[in-house]
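User: Quick sanity check before I run a bigger batch. Here is a single chain. Can you write out its predicted 3D structure?
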Amino acid sequence: MGKKAALIKGDGVGPELTLAAMKVLEAVGTEVELIPVEAGYEWWLQHGGPSLIPPETWKILEEADAILKAPCTTPAEPGSPRSVAVSIRQRFDLYANIRPIKTFKGLPSLYGDLDFICVRETTEGLYSGIEHRLAPDIAIAVRKITRRQSEKVARKAFQIAKDKGWTKVIVVTKRNIMKECDGVFVEAVDSVSKEFPGITYEEYYVDNMAQQLVKNPDRFNQNVILGTNLFMDIISEEAAGLLASIGMVYSANMGDFRAMFEPAHGSAPKYKGQDKVNPTAMILSAAWMIEYLGEKDKAQAIFKATEEVIAEGKVVTYDLKGSARTSEMAAAIAEKAARLLKR
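Assistant: Done. Predicted structure follows.
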């Protein structure tokens, strides 16, 4: 029986990035059945309700083997629904957001060649949604950290390091200030580390980590950087900025039984419909998804084709100093990936 993936087309530039990824997946002949579903801010503006995800979409998400999500807009007003990504992560316990940070050949880099992986806990912390307006001028939020989720995401980080043949995990905290919350997190990391002889961990406070990423990012090469939800949301975004374009950065949200794949960037509504933005992150998110579902050779062809198109620099988008449209860059990657598979 074939694998099925739910496809969230997203907001802003999401639909055109989705088309770009579909073009590439078709070129390599994926057998994964993609099921388009409604979700996001633009859907919510038309239909309203307590969630950016309608009940019929949840039903398909429950039945799918994986989820591919284009960027979605999240409303910021008090009382508006939580984001599509946070809702799905919490519903399916997708506790680990994994974001590779790797320099692409052929692109200018101020920081030399970088190669490390950010792992972020994504179900709790300040994203737990426990907020209260105590008075018109006073609001509080609860940063909930549990041993259970901390151990799960730590185990994922150490396993990634082991699989890559790396020997260090960097743990990002602010334990000198938040002694209890980050105390629980570090205790969990320390406990899990004993399952992985040969892999050490080193603790960095988040403010120092932010500085070191700007000053000496290559010191983290062949490391996995691990942290709680908000800290690693910010640190992994800063890390993405070390590459030539945020449009290059793809990610996975992993649980024990399901995964969601998505670009690391936002929905860029000002570019909607212009066929302008870099499709790399969406295409590589889709490639990672089909690899997760068993199509390793097809996924590797997409990764290699994307790297070659970017290295050649002829058919790339404006952020990579090119003049190609989203659809043109996707077509070049699709053609090259199909050719690589036939060799």
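The first helix runs from residue 14 to 27.

User: Great, the batch can go ahead then.
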